[in-house]
């Protein structure tokens, strides 16, 4: 049996038995686990949002270059995913 071979496993088993028998400690442990999970979720969401903003920024940059080269709005929309309204706004900003 692995427990008799490895003292660390025996120690972990005793800790788990203690945690399981103490309601307050178990509640604290569950709250801590939830906090860790929430933090990971927050970081993951922020990373995904940053990636989406980066992709949108890159699409806007490409659209600006396409506008400068005189490419038709329908083609810009097709290849960048930028809406016609946003293309018009880019054109207005370019004139400034």
Topology:
Layout: H1 2-5, H2 7-21, H3 23-68, H4 73-80, H5 84-95
Helix pairs in contact: 3-4, 3-5
Helix content: over 70%
Give the percentage of residues in beta strands: under 5%
Oligomer designation: single chain
Mean of residue pLDDT? 88
Largest sheet geometry: none
Structural class: mainly alpha
Radius of gyration: 28 Å
Low-confidence stretches: none
Question: How many β-strand stretches?
Answer: 0
Shape summary? rod-shaped
Element order: H for helix, E for strand:
HHHHH
Notable traits:
mainly alpha, 5 helices, 89% helix, rod-shaped
Structural features, described:
89% of the residues lie in helices and 0% in strands. It is an all-alpha fold and 96 residues long. Helix 3 packs antiparallel against helix 4 and helix 3 crosses helix 5. It is rod-shaped and about 75 Å long. The chain starts with a helix and ends with a helix.
Task: Give a concise summary.
By secondary structure, the chain is mainly α. The protein has helices spanning 2-5, 7-21, 23-68, 73-80, 84-95.
């Amino acid at each position: 049996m692995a427990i008799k071979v490895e003292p660390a496993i025996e120690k972990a088993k005793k800790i788990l038995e203690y945690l399981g028998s103490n309601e307050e400690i178990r509640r604290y442990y569950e709250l801590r686990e939830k906090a860790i999970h929430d933090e990971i979720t927050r970081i993951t969401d922020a990373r995904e949002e940053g990636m989406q903003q980066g992709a949108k920024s890159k699409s806007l940059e490409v659209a600006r270059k396409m506008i400068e080269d005189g490419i038709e709005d329908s083609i810009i929309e097709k290849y960048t995913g930028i809406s016609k309204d946003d293309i018009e706004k880019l054109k207005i900003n370019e004139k400034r």
